[in-house]
Amino acid sequence: MTAAAAAACAADMVALYTKNVGMPNVDRVTGAVTYAQVAMCVASVRAVHVGGRMYNVEIDRNETSYTMTMIPT
Q1: Residue 57, SS3?
Q2: Does residue 66 or residue 38 have the better pLDDT?
Q3: At a CB cut-off of 8 Å and minimum separation 6, what does 22 contact?
Q4: Is residue 29 part of a domain?
Q5: Domain limits at 48?
Q6: In this structure, is residue 42 part of a structural domain?
Q7: Does 67 score more than 80 pLDDT?
Q8: CA nearest to 73, candidates 35, 32, 34, 28
């Protein structure tokens, strides 16, 4: 595919792999945990030049997870 087609394809893939993710927020005073919904792309998308006028669009899915650990005070 050409550079223009690769750029359009990459933009479509970013839109396809963007989803709402619950991101934890911890209140420093009370320790209460709340979750905020944020839009996050869960993949690495890049157009890679393979030679001449040809490009590939590579996608590496990297689903995010959050872990919280209590730190003793």
Answers
A1: strand
A2: 38
A3: 35, 36, 37
A4: yes
A5: 3-61
A6: yes
A7: no
A8: 28
**Taking a C-beta distance cutoff of 8 angstroms, is the pair 20, 39 a contact?**
yes
Which residues neighbour 32 within 8 Å (Cβ) at sequence distance 6 or greater? Answer: 26
* Torsion sign, CA atoms 66, 47, 17, 38: positive
Higher pLDDT, 54 or 64: 54
**pTM tops 0.70, yes or no:** no
Residue 17 tokens read as 């792999």
Rounded Cα distance between 62 and 47, Å, is 17
Provide mean pLDDT across the span 46-62. 91
Only one residue has tokens 């030049």, namely 49
Contacts of 51 (CB under 8 A, 6+ apart): none
Find out whether 14 and 45 touch, Cβ atoms under 8 Å.
Answer: yes
Structural domains of the chain, count? 1
Question: Is residue 16 in a domain?
Answer: yes
